[in-house]
Design brief:
Blueprint: H1 5-24, H2 34-39, H3 48-57, E1 63-66, H4 73-82, E2 89-92, H5 96-110, E3 115-118, H6 122-136, E4 142-147, H7 159-162, E5 178-180, H8 185-200, E6 207-212, H9 213-217, H10 241-253, E7 257-261, H11 268-281, E8 285-287, H12 306-312, E9 315-319, H13 324-328, E10 329-332, E11 338-341, E12 348-352, E13 374-376, H14 380-394, H15 397-425, H16 436-447, E14 452-454, H17 487-499, E15 504-510, H18 511-515, H19 519-526, E16 531-537, H20 542-554, H21 575-581, E17 585-590, H22 596-608, E18 613-618
Helix pairs in contact: 3-4, 3-8, 5-6, 5-17, 10-14, 11-14, 16-22, 17-19
Bound molecules: thiamine diphosphate and magnesium ion.
Thiamine diphosphate (TPP) binds near residues 482, 513 and 542.
């Protein structure tokens, strides 16, 4: 049944002759109408996509994460050849959700967007959940989706028709800040700059441009006077002076002011101002940890005593709170759900948030409405310097001495709390599977003297209060939209951002989340993202196990079946093998805690040589 080589070559030669014939036909025919003349033009010196790359390059993107797709092949080719595959450099991904989540993680370290290229329709559909996460998490991501607007020039029998769409952005418009589908190159350049500006203005968020295929692939029109507008970043709004003075007056005169922060520190400056404000007032800070808002070991950090400090509060200052209501109320998830206020009657609430300047209706990520006494629609980080100045100006000697007494009590409470958590962490130290406290402590012991950065949420109580977070890049908060599949790709994007700063990137990943996008590990290996992934492998969608347990108990039906649909067992997943297959140094699965420290050491050595590594640790559920 084998193919005869000579016959095969004859057919191939016939094909080549046919091709040569078509090259001849490339000469434009005088008499042919203009459209038919153009149909056989084969080369172009500069296409629209070259200019698109020129426009994008003005914005200094470092990376573009993508999976190739013919709807943006022009842009892809211009980027790697005309643009030299630098600024931005192409990052090869294995799923559009991964590409978008990588950009999400990157922006939280670097403070600016990564580009993401998406194939028309299907690529954007894949990316949608990750875009939602970035939107909820107030993170700038710059997305470009290919599209083929002109039906006359779509290829039959290919993806051109099934992937073409009238309004690509419609799919994600509810959770992007801006979108456009420009039909001229000049308009494309203007939309690129506008989109960047909008993405970066607090509250930050994802933006999407559609790049029309014809616009990418046609030559730049003769004599086109194209201009890329310059970017003037929008200065975030500061609270008006009268309101800031009023807020300072309330805080200085309060007996027990409390500061609660969610997205307050956007940059290193924000963290510095938070410390200055808290120290000026000697007020407790509850860090809701969407960003590193406050040093974890600062004596005024009372995040682990949130309910206690709220109970004493007479003034609460909420900074960039997405869920202010959730911070001042306790909620019980019972058959009939109930809540109670954590604060006493008469407690005054002040809110400073850019969230008051931007809201969309469909998705309900804005949380329950919280009534407040003073609402300042402004960026908290930009407002803090004037608030600090006012607080200092209004503080007389009498208040200062009261503040010192308050601070001393808070410092003692902080110390007691941390000691209690440390004692709790010792329970089950030698258990197998490994206790999550032991995992956290072993990792901390090996990184604490380095310039480290945790590229996963500080979720566990064994991490947030036990590690010494005092730099804004030491964790990247949460996913925002709680859409699983975010963890590992966000880690990779953030690790790429950390790489040039020489920071040691580590992350604690959960198994259910990793299984949604393990391909991100290959991207880490391929692009030499030096990062340590530590698997907190509890072999379950454990949070969901807890939900089923709750409902089963409510129904009085016992707990035996609660693993059905929630356990990731039989077969157990071997993450070390997955990682090895994707090109990473890997260790594990580790079930005996005494094997953990040496495995972490070997993996960290690899990371410090510039390669990613994964340690698979089988753990207790929580
Ligand atoms: C896309 C998506 N699907 C389903 C869920 C519901 N969900 C929330 S937590 C969770 C389990 C997560 O498992 P894992 O990442 O292993 O963490 P664990 O709860 O075991 O600590 C699931 C399925 C979700 N948040 N996102
Ligand atoms: Mg799990």
């Amino acid at each position: 049944m084998s193919v005869d080589r000579r016959d095969f070559l004859k057919v191939a030669a016939g094909g080549a002759a046919a091709l040569a014939g078509s090259a001849k036909a490339a000469e434009p025919q005088e008499s042919a109408p203009p459209a038919a003349q153009n149909a056989d033009v084969l080369t172009v010196d500069r296409s629209g996509s070259d200019f698109m790359v020129d426009a994008l390059k003005t914005l200094d993107f470092e990376y573009a994460a993508a999976i190739p797709g013919s709807s943006f092949r022009g842009l892809h080719e211009s980027l790697i050849n005309y643009g030299g595959n630098a600024k931005p450099e192409w990052i090869t991904c294995c799923h559009e959700e991964i590409a978008s989540a990588m950009a999400h993680g990157y922006a939280k370290i670097e403070g600016k967007p990564m580009l993401v290229f998406l194939h028309s329709t299907v690529g954007l559909q894949h990316a949608a959940m990750a875009i939602y996460n970035a939107y909820c998490d107030r993170t700038p991501v710059f997305l470009i989706v290919g599209n083929h607007l002109d039906g006359e020039t779509r290829r039959p029998g290919t993806g051109d028709w099934v992937h073409a769409v009238q309004d690509p952005a419609g799919l994600v418009r509810d959770f992007t800040k801006f979108d456009d589908q420009p039909v001229s190159l000049q308009s494309f350049a203007e939309s690129v700059v506008r989109a960047y500006k909008i993405a970066m203005t607090p509250p930050q968020g994802p933006v999407l441009l559609a790049a029309d295929l014809t616009l990418q692939e046609r030559p730049i029109p003769d004599g086109a006077k194209l201009h890329v507008p310059k970017l003037a970043a929008t200065k975030p709004p500061q609270g008006d002076s009268g309101s800031v003075r009023e807020a300072a007056r309330l805080l200085v005169n309060a007996q027990n002011p409390v500061i609660v922060a969610d997205y307050a520190a956007r940059t290193a400056d924000g963290l510095k101002y938070m410390v200055e404000l808290a120290e000026a007032l000697q007020a407790p800070v509850i860090d809701r940890a969407s960003r590193v808002n406050f040093p974890s070991r600062h004596p005024l950090n009372q995040s682990e005593r949130a309910a206690e400090v709220m109970a004493d509060a007479d003034v609460v200052l909420g900074l960039e709170m997405v869920d202010f209501w959730g911070a001042v109320n306790a909620f019980r998830d019972q058959l009939y759900r109930s809540s109670r206020s954590l604060t006493k009657p008469g407690t005054r609430l002040i809110s400073i948030t850019s969230g008051d300047l931007f809201i969309k209706s469909n998705y309900q990520n804005f949380s329950r409405y919280q009534e407040v006494d003073l609402a300042i629609a402004a960026d908290a980080e930009a407002t803090l310097p004037s608030l600090i100045e006012e607080v200092k100006r209004l503080t007389d000697a009498g208040r200062r001495s009261a503040f010192q007494d308050r601070g001393a009590k808070l410092a003692a409470a902080h110390k007691d709390t941390i000691e209690r958590i440390r004692a709790d962490a010792a329970y089950g130290w030698d258990l197998s599977p490994v206790s999550t406290a032991r995992l956290s402590a072993e990792l901390w012991a090996q990184i604490k003297d380095k310039d480290w950065s945790l590229l996963s949420p500080p979720t566990s109580r064994w991490v947030a209060p036990m590690w010494n977070f005092d730099k804004y890049y030491q964790h990247i908060g949460f996913s925002g939209g709680e859409g699983l599949g975010y963890g590992a790709p966000a880690t990779v994007g953030a690790a790429l951002a950390n790489k040039k700063h020489g920071r040691l990137s580590v992350a604690i990943e959960s198994d259910g989340d990793l299984m949604m996008g393990p391909g991100s590990l290959w991207t880490a290996a391929h692009h030499r993202a030096p990062v340590l992934f530590v698997m907190r492998n509890n072999r379950a969608y454990h949070m969901e196990t807890q939900h089923i347990l709750r409902v089963a108990l409510r129904h009085g039906r016992g707990v035996e079946n609660s693993k059905i649909g929630t356990a990731l067992e039989d077969p157990n997943i071997n993450y070390a093998k997955i990682a090895e297959g994707l090109g990473l140094h890997s260790e594990g699965p580790i079930t005996d805690p005494k094997d953990l420290a040496p495995a972490l050491k070997r993996a960290l050595d690899t990371v410090q040589r510039g390669e990613p590594a994964l340690v698979d640790v089988v753990t207790q559920p929580r």
